[in-house]
Specification:
The protein contains five helices and 16 strands. The protein is α+β, with helices and mostly antiparallel strands and about 280 residues long. It has two domains: about 100 residues, Nucleoside Triphosphate Pyrophosphohydrolase; about 130 residues, Alpha-Beta Complex (Nucleoside Triphosphate Pyrophosphohydrolase). Helix 2 packs antiparallel against helix 3.
Amino acid sequence: MTSRWTTAVLDTDLPGGLAVVRGSEGFLVDDNGPLFTREWLRRQELPVLVEHGIGHLDGEPVYLLELQGTAQVEGCHWQGLRAFMLEGDHTLYKVLGYAAQIGTWAREHRFCGSCGGTMTQVPRERAMYCAPCDLRSYPRISPSMIVLVTRGDEVLLARSPRFVPGVYSTLAGFAEPGESAEDCLIREVYEEVQVEVKNIQYVGSQCWPFPHSMMLGFHAQYAGGEIVPQADEIEDAQWFSIHDLPPLPASRSIARYLIDLYVARRLGQVEPVLPG
């Protein structure tokens, strides 16, 4: 049976429920995973910065404890979010991905960006409020585009110095103010590899919690230009045959989905499904 996860704003004054703990080293984990009872966690005397109710997992309330830094808990260790993405439990990854975004927002909005005063949580709403300024701050979503550029049986893939050694991926970048997703795509592709594109088609989207990106996925055809990698951003970029691809991103990423989808269509194979 598939687990069901729904987000919600929960009252932290209510007892019971489960909780995840996030610190500077990732999420707290024991042999049973990252979900703990709130009562047990409260006995651990953790350095909690903020607590937020974030939703329900199979009907059970789930809370986030965002720590000031890190802590040592007997029988537990810390694990980064990306590791959970690779482990295969997509529902659990969605819970932790959402928790990571709420934790980042809560940490960054304890004080008003206008007057510097302390902000308070708004009951029954995912917002922080500064009364003197009458200012509400909500979790931020940063739109970004990610695109697979193709030329027949070839795909344009690049690698950043930040990538896992050997791995190549699609091109991506954040939208600037006043830019459409298509404008962002054209600009980013040209900035990163000095290639022009045409026939832009939207494919799908994926929430990417590093820390708060909404990735808008596209396919575009090559229109002209020679590859010139952007200094300090792109370590290498090449055209690869769909019959001889390099190591690729994790299967649950939208980058991998864009690549697998194009390969499947070119080869007449069953099309993959984008992880929700």
